[in-house]
Design brief:
By secondary structure, this protein is an alpha/beta fold. It folds into two domains: 109 residues, Aspartate Aminotransferase, domain 1 (Alpha-Beta Complex); 262 residues, Aspartate Aminotransferase, domain 2. The chain is built from twelve helices and 15 strands. It starts with a strand and ends with a helix.
C-alpha cells in the first residue's frame, strides 16, 4: 500500500504523541467528573480544568473568566447568535443590521442569514478587494459584525484590529464576532489588540481533540441570560413557572455558559496541544514550493497567493470530485468541494476547489510526491 500523504490539516490536524499520552493518562489514571464531587479525585479534575482554562486565556491574552468551552467553532458561532439575541438583556437582533462577508464559513454566516430570512435582521456585506481581502474603509454601519480572521479557502490573515476599529467608528456599540478557526493555526491571537466582543476557534485545528472549542467573551457579565440550561450553571432557583414567580440566580461566568458535563478528556489534552503547536507551527515553505512548481502548469488554476497558508486551486475541465477521487486513490489526502464556504466560490465564479494544507508532520518529500501525483492526474 502506498504511503498516505495527509495534506488536509486545515480540516483537522493530526494529534501529537504528547496529546495522546495526556488524554490516555487522564482516562486511565485520573478520570472523574468536574464540578460534581468533593473527593480528592474530583477536586484534582477541577484543578486540571482550571489550569487548562488559564492556559487557553494566556494563549489568546485573555482572562480565564472570559474563556467558555464549547464543542467547536460551529457551536460557538451559533451560540453567540442566541446570546446576543436575548431580549432579556435588551440586545435582541430584531431590526438590527448584521455585517457579514463573502469570506465567511457557513457556520459564521448562516445563523444570521436564517434570521434575516425570517425578517429578524438585515444583512449587509463587508467590502472586499480584488485579492479577496476585507476592506476597512467605508464600512457599512452595523449593529453586529462577523469577521472571518482567515478564510479556509484563501488562507490570508485579515486585519481584525483595524476592521473592529473601523466598525466602531460607524457604531460605537457594534458587537464584533471573530471566527478564528483557521487564523489560530498560523498566527498568535491577541484578543486585547483585536478588541473584539466574541471570538471562537476549534481545538482540533491545532492538534487537540475533536468535540472541543473555545468561545472568548470580552464582557461575560454583559449578557444576562445564558443560551443553554442544565447542571452547574445555576446556583439558586426559587418559585415556579406555574405560579408565575420563577427566579433564577446564575453562577458567575464562565460556569453560567457551561451547562452540563464538559468534554473533560479533550480539555485535558488542549494545553498540551497548545504547547506542541506553538513550538511546531506548519512549515509554509511547503506551500510556496507547491505554488512555484504548479503555477507553471497551464491546466491548473491557482486562486491563492504564494504567501498564503493554503494552496487552493482547480482544474477547469475536470470535475473537482473526480480530481479528488483520482489523487486520493494515489495516496494524497486533500480537501475538495466548496469547503463550506459557498459565498467565496460564488465570487470566484467556480463551484468547487481543491485545497492542500500542511501541518507540523509534513515534509518536503510529502509535497514533492503530492505535486508529482497532481501533475500526473491533470496531464
Amino acid at each position: 500500500m502506498n504511503k498516505i500523504m495527509y495534506l488536509d490539516a486545515a480540516a483537522s490536524a493530526l494529534k501529537s504523541e504528547s496529546v495522546i499520552r495526556a488524554e490516555v493518562d487522564f482516562l486511565q489514571n485520573g478520570y472523574a467528573n468536574a464540578g460534581r464531587g468533593i473527593c480528592a479525585r474530583a477536586a484534582a479534575v477541577d484543578d486540571m480544568i482550571a489550569h487548562a482554562r488559564a492556559d487557553v486565556a494566556r494563549f489568546i491574552n485573555a482572562r480565564p473568566d472570559q474563556i467558555v468551552f464549547t464543542s467547536g467553532t460551529t457551536d460557538g458561532m451559533n451560540r453567540i447568535v442566541h446570546i446576543i439575541n436575548d431580549r432579556a438583556c435588551g440586545a435582541g437582533i430584531k431590526n438590527k443590521t448584521v455585517m457579514v462577508s463573502d469570506l465567511d464559513h457557513h457556520s459564521a454566516r448562516l445563523p444570521f442569514e436564517l434570521l434575516s430570512d425570517s425578517d429578524m435582521c438585515k444583512i449587509v456585506l463587508c467590502p472586499m478587494d480584488e485579492n479577496c481581502n476585507l476592506i476597512c474603509s467605508d464600512l457599512p454601519r452595523a449593529d453586529v459584525f462577523v469577521i472571518t480572521a482567515m478564510s479556509n479557502v484563501i488562507g490570508m490573515p485579515q486585519d481584525v484590529a483595524s476592521l473592529v476599529a473601523a466598525a466602531r467608528k460607524k457604531n460605537p456599540d457594534v458587537i464584533t464576532v471573530v471566527d478564528a478557526a483557521q487564523y489560530v493555526v498560523h498566527n498568535k491571537i491577541d484578543v486585547q489588540k483585536w478588541d473584539c466582543d466574541f471570538m471562537c476557534f476549534s481545538a482540533h485545528k491545532i492538534g487537540a481533540d475533536t468535540g472541543l472549542g473555545v468561545m472568548y467573551m470580552k464582557n461575560p457579565e454583559r449578557w444576562g441570560w445564558p443560551d443553554k440550561f442544565g447542571g452547574g450553571m445555576v446556583s439558586k432557583i426559587t418559585g415556579s413557572a406555574a405560579e408565575h414567580n420563577l427566579a433564577l440566580q446564575w453562577e458567575d461566568a464562565p460556569a453560567k455558559f457551561e451547562a452540563g458535563t464538559l468534554p473533560l478528556t479533550q480539555i485535558i489534552g488542549l494545553p498540551v496541544a497548545i504547547d506542541y503547536w506553538s513550538a511546531n507551527r506548519p512549515n509554509l515553505d511547503l506551500i510556496k514550493y507547491l505554488y512555484d512548481r504548479l503555477s507553471g502548469n497551464s491546466r491548473i488554476k491557482i486562486i491563492t497567493p504564494r504567501d498564503a497558508t493554503l494552496f487552493t486551486f482547480y482544474v477547469p475541465d475536470m470535475h473537482i470530485l473526480d480530481f479528488g477521487a483520482s489523487v486520493g486513490a494515489r495516496g494524497v489526502c486533500l480537501r475538495v468541494g466548496n469547503m463550506c464556504a459557498s459565498w467565496i466560490h460564488k465570487v470566484l465564479g467556480i463551484r468547487g476547489t481543491a485545497r492542500v494544507s500542511v501541518g507540523p508532520w509534513n515534509t518536503m518529500d510529502d509535497v514533492r510526491q503530492a505535486a508529482d501525483i497532481i501533475e500526473s492526474v491533470v496531464k
